[in-house]
Amino acid sequence: MQIKSITDQEVQQYRAETRGTTQRIHFNNAGSSLPPDVVVDTVVNYLKEEAIYGGYETEAKYKEQLNNTYSLIARLINADKDEIALVENASSAWGIAFNGIEFKPGDEVIISEMEYVTNIIGFLNAEKTRGIKTRIVYNDEQGNFDLKTLVEAISAKTKLIAVTHIASTTGGVMPVVEIGKIARKHNILYLVDACQSVGQVPVDVKEIDCDMLSVTGRKYLRAPRGTGFLYVRKHILDKIKLSFIDGFAVKSVSQDEFKLKDDARRFELYEKNRAITLGLGKAVEYALNIGVDRIWHRVQQLAILMRRHLNNIDGVTVHDIGDQQCGIVTFSVSGFEAVAIKNKLAEKQINVSVGLAQSTLIYMDKYHLTSVVRASVHYYNTEEEILLMCNELTLLLKTVASEVYPK
């Protein structure tokens, strides 16, 4: 089926519905996207009502809309709403899932070189406290995950395959669907960190065939900070043990026993920010109304354009490799630390970020990178904004060159 491209008129509409686009060029969507105005207004208006009518009373008024957030998320990733738990961020979601697995000493976890720092810390901690072993499957020379090596790494002791769909400091994309087929064939638990992918890439948990998926709201979903969710396949709910339980997690309790809820809400705590929960729902609804397949198509077009222009600048090195790449573009500028480029562009109201070595430690160490400039595009960005950033980089390098080699 041919994807209908997002038109220039639609881009202008999305920009008009996003106050932040009038203030600066925002290429830090992999850090935190600019939210649509409707998301901001939803959060602010809810908080105002809480201040006037009371927190519990306002929650009761918006009960249906708050519950609808689960349905919207389920629709977004092709899950059942009972498989969704709302949490503060992807790290919380990932930690609930990973730490809830009953590992035994000697159990093996297979990971990739693309893992995020929080996940690496989780693996290291489990090695020290629970006696597991971690096996890394590296990408090949072209930057593609080696599925053959993954199969060879599986043993009778393999308890979990845990991969990050899109890494923090490189634009490569992991073949999560193909990995899922291998995990299912060998009956191995499968955890996917989709922190950077949901909102920019179509994510279908049934197609991926993962058991658990962790997501944050603030990145490509354009939701408020402090939002996220965890997907847990209903058939493995009882395999994930809870490290902390409050009254919200149970369906019944007596002086002698309690029974957990039959859905993923057992992983939640009662007290959370209802205003930003509504904001998360609005952000998901906004993305669904556009169509994530259309968003992904435009993000790829913009990222290809950015890489092309950056590659044409003498002194700029683009680091992204692999057959499939995303809206995260990473590069270095000769003679400049990444943070200096970030600061120089910020003076021109252009937002980029710095990808530190520890963020994707295995990958960065492999390629001897200490930091990179990370420019991440979204569908509301424009070709003109990309040209403006590249022109600023060109002028900066020319200025330095003229100072070193004056006429």
TrEMBL record:
Transmembrane segments: none annotated. This is Selenocysteine lyase/cysteine desulfurase. It comes from Mucilaginibacter frigoritolerans. GO terms for molecular function: lyase activity. Gene3D superfamilies: Aspartate Aminotransferase, domain 1 (3.90.1150.10), Type I PLP-dependent aspartate aminotransferase-like (Major domain) (3.40.640.10). Its cofactor is pyridoxal 5'-phosphate. Keywords: Lyase, Pyridoxal phosphate. Belongs to the class-V pyridoxal-phosphate-dependent aminotransferase family. Residues 26-386 form the Aminotransferase class V domain. InterPro entries: Aminotrans_V_dom (IPR000192), Aminotrans_V_PyrdxlP_BS (IPR020578), PyrdxlP-dep_Trfase (IPR015424), PyrdxlP-dep_Trfase_major (IPR015421), PyrdxlP-dep_Trfase_small (IPR015422). The lineage of its organism: Bacteria, Pseudomonadati, Bacteroidota, Sphingobacteriia, Sphingobacteriales. It comes from the Bacteria.
